[in-house]
Design a protein that fits this description.
Elements lengths: L1 H15 L18 E4 L5 H10 L5 E4 L2 H7 L4 H9 L2 E4 L16 E3 L18 E6 L10 H6 L8 E6 L5 H13 L3 E5 L3 H10 L2 E4 L8 H8 L4 E4 L2 H7 L6 E2 L4 H13 L1 H9 L2 H4 L4 H12 L5
Length: about 300
């Protein structure tokens, strides 16, 4: 989960394309052909240093959800990073409308790919397992699904399984307290990326309740593995799932999420509809498509 997983996945992908890649948390000294800066604000100093040390070499700035929905318009560093960059990388198409018109010609969109988990994990029969994946931060609205589950009828078999690292003691206490109060909620804490993928692939549905995102990898993983998705209506989910996707709910709408949870549990045709609605985007979430997109992007530079 998070930017570290994205950076490692991109490293492997670019290695497969024949490039030598160094992943660093700060700009390294020495000659490099190109910089891919993941996070416009946090990589600001690296962008400046790279351009000083590697004159005329290209910079690609990949904007995160924090860049787009929190720091843009507030941080001069974000704007300076994208203005200095030769290309701006986005993970979903709607994000581009947040940037000034003069910068949009630099934008390229590359969807985060995912793989089908094989063999398909065995699903629980006793419970209708619903996963929530992501670090427990306020912007993720992480406990919305647990709260919605408390509204379900007693006949419901929904069990919410939350996976993610708590970044402060309050979140940890809240998660443990909810697990004690709510028999429908289980908090697993952080798991390896592979184990997280397996838990997602065995679930009956997954929920993304974030207030903002840049292009969540878990969404790609759910779609590729044909897991029905319920998601908050934000730019990232609308950009990938489509504005008319039937599994969207307004940010913070616990009542509506509870209704959708019960429907996705009880209505097999609704589950099939949710999966069917993602068929058109699934092709763009294949690793081969992402490799082709990166090859095309890098071919725009001569170095």
């Amino acid at each position: 989960m998070g930017n570290s997983v994205t950076a490692d996945r991109w490293r492997k992908l670019l290695n497969d394309l024949g490039h030598e890649v160094t992943v660093a948390h700060r700009c390294l000294r020495g000659p490099f052909d190109l910089l891919i800066a993941l996070h416009a604000r946090k990589s600001h100093n690296a962008v400046l240093q790279f351009q000083k040390q590697n004159a005329k070499r290209p910079v690609i700035v990949a904007m995160t959800g924090t860049d787009l929905h929190s720091d843009l318009g507030r941080s001069k560093k974000v704007m300076e990073s994208v203005e200095l960059a030769q290309r701006i990388l986005l993970l979903e198409p709607k994000a581009g409308f947040k940037l000034p018109t003069k910068l949009r010609k630099k934008i390229r969109v590359i969807y985060q790919s995912a793989v089908v988990i094989k063999p398909t994990p065995t699903r629980l029969k006793r419970w209708f397992e619903v996963t929530v994946v992501g670090h427990l931060r306020p912007v993720k609205d992480p406990f919305r699904t647990a709260q919605a589950a408390m509204r379900l009828p007693t006949v419901s078999r929904v069990r919410v399984v939350q996976i993610g690292r708590t970044l402060d003691p309050f979140m940890e206490r809240r998660a443990r307290s909810l697990a004690e109060q709510n028999p429908r909620y289980k908090f697993l804490g952080p798991l390896s990326h592979l184990e997280t993928q397996r838990r997602l692939a065995r679930s009956r549905a997954t929920v993304l309740s974030s207030k903002s995102e840049g292009g969540p990898a878990v969404l790609s993983e759910a779609i590729v593995n044909s897991i029905p998705v319920l998601a908050s209506r934000i730019d990232a989910t609308e950009g990938i799932l489509g504005e008319s996707y039937p599994g969207l709910f307004c940010v913070g709408d616990t009542r509506r999420l509870a209704e959708l949870l019960y429907r996705v549990e009880k209505d097999a045709s609704f589950r099939r509809e949710l999966v069917s609605c993602t068929k058109s985007i699934k092709r763009k979430l294949q690793p081969s498509f992402e490799r082709k997109a990166w090859r095309a992007l890098l071919s725009e530079f001569s170095y």
